[in-house]
TrEMBL record:
Pfam families: DUF5753, HTH_31. Gene3D superfamilies: lambda repressor-like DNA-binding domains. It comes from Actinokineospora alba. This is Helix-turn-helix domain-containing protein. CDD domains: HTH_XRE.
Length: 299
């Protein structure tokens, strides 16, 4: 696996390890089946080995008793890993698509995560009610919608695991003012963010509307920092997620990160704004209830 695509190599290795463990095989048991030493297999599964060929992937998967469709999937992953483009695209799916699986893998192995969201509350911070309201607009079945919400809620466990990573969220003020669902949903969403912002490993910083055109910095992105590996950037789009590992590509997003840090309110000021907006939504909900009651009485 090329040194220039180590994030893809780690992900491919993790997928291979998953199939081996599902087959109930240890590295020692798999070693004679493939004719490789356990040390070589360990390097393959951790992304430290040299380029792995498609034939080697097929032999590995066959030794694990994998189905043909799974073999095809890992062959595609192997091709992407061996292609030294410095980026790769993972398509979305109705359930947990390749992009979400890849995002969760790299997110869970990072020591630091920096996110930027211009329009919506970041997925890791969303309440279940907010996520349900957000997915309600999607042209999918209720079963698929429920699966997406569940996956989003389960993904949030990473915030509270043992020895968690440091998470920094830059969010445009307009994302907080965009009404998703009801006023009550928005009130509870912002109150939940106040709770999260009080955690030692979570920093929420709001880019105020007063920044105006200076805060026009493009679409959402995430930067993942690692102790042993290069920084990885992730861009989420309507058809898939784009991972960037090339130094020049990632450098551009590091520059955006520095601009955001200069524009955003600090953590304390951001909490004040969150509390203010939560109160506004709470008051608006009460006004709406009063107006609705008057309308019903007039009927």
């Amino acid at each position: 696996m090329g040194a220039r695509n180590r994030a893809g190599a780690r992900e491919l290795g993790d997928l291979l390890r998953g199939y081996r463990e599902a087959a109930g095989l240890t590295l020692r048991q798999l070693s004679p089946k493939l004719g490789y030493s356990t040390a070589c297999l360990h390097r393959l599964e951790t992304g430290y080995r040299g380029t792995t060929t498609e034939t080697e992937v097929v032999h590995y998967m066959a030794a694990c008793g994998a189905h043909y469709k799974d073999v095809r999937k890992l062959i595609d992953a192997c091709r992407a890993t061996n292609d030294d483009r410095g980026y790769w695209l993972c398509p979305h799916g109705q359930w947990m698509g390749d992009s979400l699986r890849s995002l969760i893998f790299h997110e869970s192995s990072a020591s630091k995560s920096v996110s930027y969201e211009p329009e919506l509350i970041p997925g890791l911070l969303q309440t279940e009610a907010y996520a349900r309201a957000l997915f309600a607009r999607a042209d999918i079945s209720e079963e698929h919608r429920a699966a997406r919400v569940q996956a989003r809620m389960e993904r949030q466990r990473i915030l509270f695991r043992n020895n968690p990573a440091k998470f920094i969220f830059f969010i445009q003020e307009r994302a907080l003012r965009l009404e998703v669902g009801t006023y009550r949903i928005m009130t509870e969403q912002l109150l939940a963010m106040l709770f999260l912002a009080d955690q030692w490993n979570i920093s929420i910083r709001i880019v105020p509307a007063s920044a105006r055109d200076r805060a026009s910095l493009g679409g959402p992105f995430q930067l993942f920092g690692f102790h042993k590996y290069r920084t990885l950037a992730y861009l989420d789009g309507p058809v898939g997620g784009l991972f960037l590992e090339d130094l020049d590509y990632v450098g551009a997003y590091r520059s955006l990160n520095r601009q955001l840090a200069g524009l955003a309110l600090d953590a304390g000021e951001s909490r004040v704004l969150l509390a203010k907006l939560a109160d506004e939504y709470d008051r608006a909900e009460g006004s709406w209830d009063d107006a609705s009651q008057v309308a019903q009485e007039q009927l």
